[in-house]
Amino acid sequence: MYLMYFIVPLWLAAGVADWLCHRRSGIEHTSGPKESAIHLLMLVEMGAPVLAALFLDVNALVLAFMIACFFVHEATALWDVSYATQHRTVTPLEQHIHSFLEMLPLMAVSMIALLHWPQFAALFGAGPEAADFGLRWKESPLPRSYVLWLMAAIVVFELLPYGEEFARTVREKLRPRLSRTA
Predict the structure, then answer these.
(1) Where are the transmembrane segments (predicted)?
(2) What is the pLDDT of residues 37-52, one digit of tens each?
(3) Is 50 a domain residue?
(4) 3 state SS of 128
């Protein structure tokens, strides 16, 4: 419950706050579509394990996938900040929001690992169970209302804002130079 009703909404809120920072900094005039595309990549890197947790039986395979996605996301986040700081001012507030966007996925994966400890331990050859690398739908799905709420929230608070950001940055890049200086 804590994961579903506290960590996930906080994570979504941090994503919106980060988008607002990008909007306020005028990302379309500075780092442009490349940084925005990196943000979309990070959404995919975290969206895939979220979908796995929502719909698949969490076992050693799903846990390994989530852990791998977390580390790939961390590498992309480092690339994002390295690129952004060369092209625009990343304020202390935005940096603090980035801390949330890095730690909340770690907390989520950690909590899921705790909920499925025998399979997490089995990943490392420990514990009483053998690692299960099968791919199956959840036997006991999450409440449909929660899944629908979460999917709607992801669309409204993540996909639409970051899609708008990408469109805005591409539009600015494609705008003729003369209209930029006029």
Answers:
(1) 47-72, 104-126, 146-163
(2) 999 999 999 999 999 9
(3) yes
(4) coil
